[in-house]
Amino acid sequence: MPDTQVAAAPRQLAPRASATTAPARLPATARKPAAQRWRRFASPLVLVVLWQAASMAGLIPPRTLAAPTTVLASTWELIETGELPYHLLVSLGRVLTGFTLGVTTGAALALVAGLSRLGEEVVDAPMQMLRTMPFLALVPLFILWFGIGETPKIALVALGATFPVYLTLFAGIRGTDPKLAEAARVFGLDRRGLIRHVILPGALPSALVGLRYALGSAWLSLVIAEQINATAGIGFLINDAREFLRTDVIVVGLVVYALLGLGADALVRLVERRALAWRPGLLKA
Amino acid sequence: MDMHAPAFATHDPLRVRNLTRRFGENTVLDALNLDLAPGSFTALLGRSGSGKTTLLRTLAGLDEAPHEARLDLPRPAAVVFQEPRLLPWKKVWQNVVLGLPSAGARRRAAQALTEVGLDHRQDVWPATLSGGEAQRAALARALVREPRLLLLDEPFAALDALTRIRMHALVLDLWRHHGPTTLIVTHDVDEAVLLADRVLVLDGGRIAADIAVDLPRPRAHADAGFAALRRRLLTELGVDQQEAA
Ligand SMILES: Nc1ncnc2c1ncn2[C@@H]1O[C@H](COP(=O)(O)OP(=O)(O)OP(=O)(O)O)[C@@H](O)[C@H]1O
Ligand SMILES: [Mg+2]
Questions:
Q1: Where is this region: Disordered (chain A) (predicted)?
Q2: N or C, where is chain B less crowded by C-beta within 10 Å?
Q3: Ligand 1, atom 2: nearest CA belongs to which residue?
């Protein structure tokens, strides 16, 4: 599933941008696709209505799946008791810490490997070997190393974010157009100036795709990590609910996971639109 | 009085002695000697693969010269490549002053862009420029450095004929105002005769022909002497006159 995100990312860039480059005209441009957007919501809405009807008719027993109205009521309850906000904060904390750690590590390694030959020889070979391993397979080892506290959870999230950032930033740095670098050199940029004005901005589009990929990966890691003996967090909420056959609470947890993923993705897209405003595909306002 | 000489031409001449460049077995420049007068405008012609770009790169300092060669080069040097080579993530004006101290950069960029007729495009991304506009921005980027040596490697080859005519006029104008020693590499014999005081032909790793262009500016294809010069250069380039006609 993270793979499809990477493949889809560059294509999604172009059409979304048109609205951003001309904020003044936003209401006018937003009005036209409004009908389309409603149509997009119509079919999920119908599904929810069918689900509700089936639940009320007794076709879906609450043990299998709670009715949407029950889910809504439970959501409200979980918010009111402060349970949901608490677990949400715990999960967010894990993702933020792990993601920051992972992105920092991935970016640092990519800079070392991308900007120096020696760095490449030392860093790239092991990274390329490690990345072929499905990192979630490391869970048992992580439990042995880090126990069952917060550390293995954060480490897993960090690991999930490291590789996408490393691979895309490294590729971006190495993909620098030598003609641009040469021109910059004629016009007096030293090595530092070259890195700052040519290499890093040129690597940014690739790195941002990696960042989105890393988010998806970090999220997935969080879900897996929170199955490891957690005592708090959305994953704990879900596992705990399973013990009591509370399918309504499980659905709440799943929806929260989905919304968090969507929100994070939207955030990166926003960064993308701002940072890559110069890209030809984004310019046709 | 020489109407077309640049306003000032007080700096050092360009002198190259014994420049040899090899790529494996392939000797591209063979003990080449070259002198360019300060503030002169020279065109460099030659078959494809004759080493024009190689020579220009050495003059620009992009390639290291072998130590047996002696080079006296006016500095600073600026290059306009065949492609504009603007950084797509910097606004046009930022591209123009790339690598210059930031104090007063904005003003200098504006001034240079005005000179090439791009003052209204200062704040756009390079991707929105037409080919001719992008190449004019590249010219502004070269000129803002007040180069004493201006090197142009087929700068107009990718432009349409009309834009190219406009660019010729612009380059001559800028040359007259700023007076850099100018060397333009071109495949186009007409372009060479239109622009330059002197046309060199590179062949066999050396300057094989050195022809002065003594036509008054502005020049036109219909001028007396233009056709004769053109014919002579084509012969030097080994083009059969029947083919060329
Ligand atoms: N970096 C390089 N490595 C190997 N061979 C090279 C290199 N650069 C140039 N050459 C060779 O040197 C010769 C001269 O190349 P150069 O680019 O100077 O020719 P040119 O006169 O500019 O040609 P054109 O008119 O097609 O641009 C060619 O045979 C080319 O293959
Ligand atoms: Mg060439």
A1: 1-31
A2: N
A3: B23
